[in-house]
Amino acid sequence: VVIVGAGFAGLAAARALAKAAPDVECKVTLIDRHVYSTFQPLLYQVATGGLNPGDVAYPVRGFAVRHGVRYRQGTVVDVDADKRVVTLDDGSAVDFDYLVLAVGAHVNYFGVPGAAEHSAALYTRKEALTLRDEIMGALERAARAGPDGPGAAVVVVGGGPTGVEMAGTLAELRAALPVAFPEVRPTAVRVILAEQGDELLAPFRPELRAYALRELQRRGVEVRFSTTIAEVGEDFVRLHDGSTLPAQLTVWAAGVAVPDAVAAWGLPQGRGGRILVGHDLRVQHHDRVFAAGDLAMDPDHPLPQLAQPAIQTGRHAGRQIARLLTALPTQPFHYRDKGTMATIGRRAAIAQLPLGVRLTGTVAWLAWLTVHIVSLLGSRNRASTLLNLSWRYLYWPGGLIVGDIPEAEGG
Amino acid sequence: VVIVGAGFAGLAAARALAKAAPDVECKVTLIDRHVYSTFQPLLYQVATGGLNPGDVAYPVRGFAVRHGVRYRQGTVVDVDADKRVVTLDDGSAVDFDYLVLAVGAHVNYFGVPGAAEHSAALYTRKEALTLRDEIMGALERAARAGPDGPGAAVVVVGGGPTGVEMAGTLAELRAALPVAFPEVRPTAVRVILAEQGDELLAPFRPELRAYALRELQRRGVEVRFSTTIAEVGEDFVRLHDGSTLPAQLTVWAAGVAVPDAVAAWGLPQGRGGRILVGHDLRVQHHDRVFAAGDLAMDPDHPLPQLAQPAIQTGRHAGRQIARLLTALPTQPFHYRDKGTMATIGRRAAIAQLPLGVRLTGTVAWLAWLTVHIVSLLGSRNRASTLLNLSWRYLYWPGGLIVGDIPEAEGG
User: Fold this and answer.
1) Which of A30, A407, B17, B24 is the most exposed place for a label (fewest CB within 10 A)?
2) Residue B106, C-beta contacts closer than 8 angstroms, at least 6 positions apart
3) Distance between CA atoms of A84 and A80, rounded to whole angstroms?
4) Predicted confidence (pLDDT) at residue B164 exceeds the cutoff of 70
5) Residues of A whose CB is below 8 A from B123
6) Are A74 and A90 in contact, with CB atoms under 8 Å apart?
């Protein structure tokens, strides 16, 4: 069995197969281009200097050792479902009896001019680090220019969970400015959240959305609805109505798409490039190939591209392979909604749980903290994240985690 | 007062001036090209995946806030001692009444061909990260090649504390290979420590040197004396006797020199480019300019380029400026030897303390651990380092901290 992608879905599939191990004999190979698995829901904490990249990146080989799985570092460039072989970027071929494709999704700029060049995404460890260093660079440049300088404006594009969490945390960073950056007037630093529609956090219930909006505004985030970006420049964004916003930094959190390279695999793709699967998560017309996570979509039951659907589809794919290996038929996948959460800042979060339970404020924030720390892979990562987030929220403004800031533009 | 460089010496000077603050009125500006201060003695832990870069990098602005100091991000390109002004890379000028120069030293390749291109240094946060990712890349390439592949050899050049600590930790990484990299035969991974002279850790007493050599060899490090490097290639080093060693990776820990840019400042320089200072640490022929740390040298009392001399000279420079500001004459600097330590690996270290106290083994290792954790800046860094080093040594081989490995060569 070959699993491509060591994200939530790929690891869940490997875990399901490892669990079936005594009864089902199979050799599992996990392929990923990175030697670590990224815990994407906390990348915005890395981008804002609250967590180390090492806190949200778990070594795949550590996972492989614990689950009796082989790890192979590489990028899949071709999938031949008939010959049952995947080809890696170094030219080597890996045979499979069953295949799970779970390479996830990446930022989608929707073809907006300048977006790819001038905005920062937040889906990989490296993107989070780049963004962190750019944020600090923008603040240092504002400090050099002094209290009468132009300051800095950050535009966050997209009012989904990623955009809201990023904007909320940036607003908290700004609140610490008078201490850390006395040369910069806090009013000279703007955090603008630009949402295309007329609601933030669309999948949440109205009262939770209203709470989130209130909390963001209370923290000084300028929330703009019905705002469609027409172009991203080096220090501005231009809107569809022709007006422009200043933007020393633009964070693009407006949507995801499957990587372009997936098209070369020759599998059926739907909206956003997602690979079309049947009810049992097998790729349409392919008996031995499963797809899971952000990469996959059952057109009859589309799911949001979040952690829970990825974990559950990955686990289901792994279980179905275990069934096929013991000559049992596959079963259809049923998504179990365990709820959704988003955090706005210190002691402010929203949680929409099953059975109509809805939480806001400190309780929701503690629930968010607990769930995220428990879900991390590896006890060192859990302990380190607990430590760093405690520092961030208890001793705020405590020591930020900073890196090399990029060369000042026009310096 | 302007302090250039936020390393051990620069921070010690700032701290000394802050301490004198109620009696001595002065405005202190700290200039550094990085927004963090690096704790260099633990960089080899970052390079071997035991610590996060954030654990050994403390934000300069956090320090500045606590000590009532201004921070200015930038690189000094010119010093005009007569006009009392330093010029930064962005063209701006900073005036001073008194100046402390403490930009430290950097790797010295001694003009060995290929060394700058094909070997890794270990003096900055970025170098440590690059080396870490290259180590993991070399292991992944060895894993791809399988048990019959060529394996990997690491040559560490220089038998001083940095070289010994790096070689010892690499040997411990190798001991974990059978678990994490089952595709690689441990005997196919070689750690070679190449020393030009006939002794490791020259400043230590003979019995401590003998212990260190024994411990390194017991861990499988190939220690080679009288080995002078003539050339460094992509996957080999050539020695002066014409023979070559395989070296998928070369770590250059053979010596330091003052950055080339310092020559442009027009100050008197001695061996290794170090700025020549008088007994009170004022730069020769300059009344208002002090130099401290690795950058400075009193030709009558040369000191090793280590943390303790840097801290003590920096503090002395700060105190002398406080004296000059209150119209007192300067005092000569006297170095107080507090001892030296080096660690070879888990529960193996050497410590040479005052009054003839010499420690080896677990006791020395615990002393090393305690001193280094206590010396770190910031309580978050201390807690995080304690956590991560505990994990490394208690739960070995636990979760390594890994990053993006560079593109495979010839892939």
Assistant:
1) A407
2) B121, B123, B124, B256, B257, B258, B259
3) 6
4) yes
5) none
6) yes
Whether the per-residue pLDDT at A248 is higher than 50: the answer is: yes
Contact A381 B400 (CB under 8 A): no
CA distances to A91, A118, A193, A245, B132 from A233, in Å: 39, 6, 17, 10, 35
3-state secondary structure of B253: coil
- Cis status of the peptide bond prior to A150, with omega within 30 of 0: no
At A139-148, the pLDDT tens digits run: 999 998 888 8
β partners of residue A221: A191
ipTM above 0.95, yes or no: no
Residue type, A47: A
**A308-A314-A316-A318 Cα dihedral, nearest 10 degrees:** -150
Label residue A56 by pLDDT band (50, 70, 90): very high
Q: Which two tokens stand for residue B22?
A: 């109620």
Task: Please report which confidence band the pLDDT of residue B407 belongs to, taking 50, 70 and 90 as the band edges.
Answer: low
Mutate to test the interface with A, among B73, B127, B376, B382 (most CBs of A within 10 A): B73
Q: CA-nearest residue of chain A to B395?
A: A380
- Percentage of chain B exceeding pLDDT 70: 98
Active-site option among A25, A127, A134, A165: A165
Tokens for A254, please give them. 């407006």
Which residues, numbered 91 to 150 in chain A, qualify as contacts with chain B under a Cβ-Cβ cut-off of 8 Å? 91-92, 125-126, 136, 140, 143-144
Among residues A138, A116, A113, the alpha carbon closest in space to that of A248 is found at A138
Q: What is the DSSP string of B361-389?
A: HHHHHHHHHHHHHHHSSSHHHHHHHHHHH
Choose, from B165, B172, B195, B215, the residue flagged as catalytic: B165
Q: To probe the interface with B, which of A37, A404, A407 has the most B CB atoms within 10 Å?
A: A404
Residue B91 CB neighbour total at 10 angstroms: 9
Question: Of A246, A253, A210, which Cα lies nearest the Cα of A110?
Answer: A253
- Decide if B269 contacts B258 (C-beta within 8 A): yes
B259 φ, ψ (degrees, to nearest 5): -55, 145
In this predicted structure, the answer to whether residue A411 has a pLDDT above a threshold of 60 is no
Dihedral (CA of A178, B56, B124, B354) sign: positive
Helices (H) and strands (E) in chain B, counts: 11, 25
- Separation between Cα atoms, residue B130 and residue A58, nearest integer Å: 18
pLDDT digits (tens, 9 = 90+) for B12-28: 999 999 999 888 889 99
HSE of B135 in the Cβ direction (CA atoms, 13 Å)? 34
Residues 6+ apart with CB under 8 A from B321: B1, B13, B17, B26, B98, B100, B290
Residue A199 is among the residues annotated as catalytic for this protein: no
For residue A178, the one-letter residue type is P
Q: Indicate whether A113 pLDDT > 60.
A: yes
Chain A residues lying within 8 Å of B384, measured CB to CB: 52, 384, 387-388
What's the pTM? 0.92
- What pLDDT is stored for residue B391 in this prediction? 81
Of B47, B312, B5, which is closest to residue B162 (Cα–Cα)? B47
Helix intervals (H) in A27-183: 43-47, 60-67, 115-118, 125-145, 161-175, 177-180
Contacts of A388 in chain B (CB under 8 A): 380, 384
- Beta strand A76-80 pairing with A85-88: antiparallel
Q: Of chain A residues 235-264, which have a CB less than 8 A from chain B? A: none
Cβ contact A160:A201 at 8 Å: yes
Residues 6+ apart with CB under 8 A from A137: A405, A406, A408
Measure the N-to-C terminal CA separation of chain A; round to a whole number of Å.
Answer: 53
Q: Which residues contact A339 (CB under 8 A, 6 or more apart)?
A: A351, A352, A353, A354, A357
Q: Give the pLDDT score at B411.
A: 29
